């Protein structure tokens, strides 16, 4: 479990955090399989056996990939993924918002 105190954010900052989490909610942590790869072929074979999977979601926009990577690593390690913090800061997230993303999204 993450040991971060609840960040002090104003309502607009919480709204940004919520909107960001909603935008990456169903993106998953794995990259899609490369066409023709063993993973892709296995996925198609399994799909043929058990039926089609649910409709694929739209690809994740490029600007949200650092958020996804941060959340995935934080969730895997149960520690704040510090190496992703600079890219999130460059997108305009404050340290408090980054900690809120970690607490709510990981």
TrEMBL record:
Stated name of the protein: Uncharacterized protein
Species per Swiss-Prot/TrEMBL record: Sphingobium cyanobacteriorum
